Automatic annotation (TrEMBL):
It comes from Tamilnaduibacter salinus. InterPro entries: TPR-like_helical_dom_sf (IPR011990). This is MSHA biogenesis protein MshN. The keyword Transmembrane helix applies. Residues 1-24, 76-203 are annotated as: Disordered. Residues 96-117, 162-176 have a biased composition (Low complexity).
Length: 384
């Protein structure tokens, strides 16, 4: 404004100078006005140019404040992005895109003068640096979102696929092992079956001997028995042969395969040996075979019945009565046991006790008719 005032003041001084010079020369007023018409026009044009120059100077001096005012919106728009970047990268990219164009427009407007560009660069360094930062952020943001969005999917899927593949790879060997284990068991099962025990071999041989004897193949049964006894005691095979021979009336042939070394530890063989001895007319030898190491009545009642019968035949009714009483204590529903007790008591000189035993036998429903008739006759003889 001071320059403008100085220019106006100079213009007024120039306007007033010609009039004074004309008055000083003494020329007439009309002539002076016509003669000074052109200089007035030039002076007016000079005033206009001076005014325009002053306005231009004023604009140049005030341009920095206006340029800073123009750039301020850019700094305001980019300021929040630098201060608090949005957690969403896609949103920050959208907000930064306009800021990259704003510095370009402001740079075009400020290129009208070198001074305004330098002033803008000095007074507003943040807005000029913000676009570069925003460009780098936008470039980084442009490069980050796609891998960021793609990586969770791949990261989320690849572990599952790898885990699934690993699980399948691990389950496949376990399944194959599980499949092989039953095969091993099934393959080892026949081995267990073929690895038979001596008892199993003895059972098989006894069945073969019985089948051969029933078919009349005595020699084959004898060979089977001879083969099995060479490797083990074979009590079942010996018993099968001895029973058949006793029924067939060949007690001596049965006794041949019933040695004392084998009958001492096997109750069934010991009983068969005693029956063979009894059949051969050797009751005392049979009693000696059965008297020692007697089993319990519940385990072998036939053993006690045979021994009681042998005592009765050998003239020892008291011992026979003792054995019959033990059998009846175990089971009092057997008619034959009651008749045996009655005979032992009658032979031992106890007729009343014998008669009572006969009555007990006749009172049973399961007594055989022949045995019932025998008991009735003996009872009638005692009472008559």
């Amino acid at each position: 404004m001071s320059l403008l005032n100085d220019a106006l003041r100079n213009a007024e001084q120039r306007q007033s100078a010609p009039g004074a010079q004309g008055a000083y020369v003494g020329q007439p007023r009309a002539v002076g006005e016509r003669a000074s018409g052109r200089p007035l026009a030039w002076w007016g044009l000079g005033l206009v140019l001076a005014g325009l120059g002053g306005v231009l100077i004023w604009l140049l001096w005030t341009q920095p404040s206006s340029s800073s005012a123009v750039i301020e919106p850019v700094s305001v728009s980019t300021g929040p992005i630098e201060a608090r970047p949005s957690p969403d990268k896609s949103g920050s990219v959208g907000n930064e895109a306009p800021s990259t164009t704003t510095p370009t427009a402001s740079a075009d407007t400020t290129q009208t003068s070198a001074e305004t560009t330098r002033v803008a660069a000095v007074e507003a360094p943040e807005p000029t640096q913000a676009p570069a930062t925003d460009d780098r952020q936008s470039d980084a943001a442009d490069n980050r979102p796609e891998p960021a969005t793609a990586e969770p999917d791949t990261d989320g899927n690849e572990p599952e696929e790898s885990a699934t593949a690993t699980g399948e790879a691990e389950s496949a060997p376990s399944t194959s092992v599980a499949d092989r284990e039953p095969r091993d068991d099934t393959e080892s099962t026949p081995v267990r079956k073929t690895r038979t025990t001596p008892e199993a071999l003895d059972r098989e041989a006894a069945e073969a001997i019985r089948a051969a004897l029933n078919d009349g193949r005595i020699a084959a049964a004898r060979r089977q028995l001879a083969g099995i006894v060479q490797s083990q005691p074979a009590p079942l095979s010996r018993a099968a042969w001895a029973r058949h021979q006793l029924v067939a009336g060949q007690p001596r042939d049965a006794l041949q395969w019933l040695p004392v070394s084998q009958t001492r530890e096997h109750v069934d063989l010991r009983l068969l040996r005693a029956r063979a001895q009894q059949a051969m007319g050797e009751p005392q030898a049979a009693i000696a075979t059965l008297a020692d190491n007697r089993p319990a009545v519940a385990r072998a009642p036939a053993y006690h019945v045979t021994l009681a019968t042998l005592y009765q035949q050998a003239g020892q009714p008291d011992r026979a009565a003792e054995l019959w009483a033990g059998l009846i204590a175990h089971d009092n529903g057997r008619g034959g046991w009651w008749v045996g007790l009655a005979l032992a008591l009658e032979s031992d000189g106890h007729p009343q006790r014998a008669a009572r035993a006969y009555r007990e036998a006749l009172g049973l429903d399961n007594i055989k008719p022949a045995l019932a008739r025998f008991a009735r006759q003996r009872l009638d003889g005692l009472e008559g």
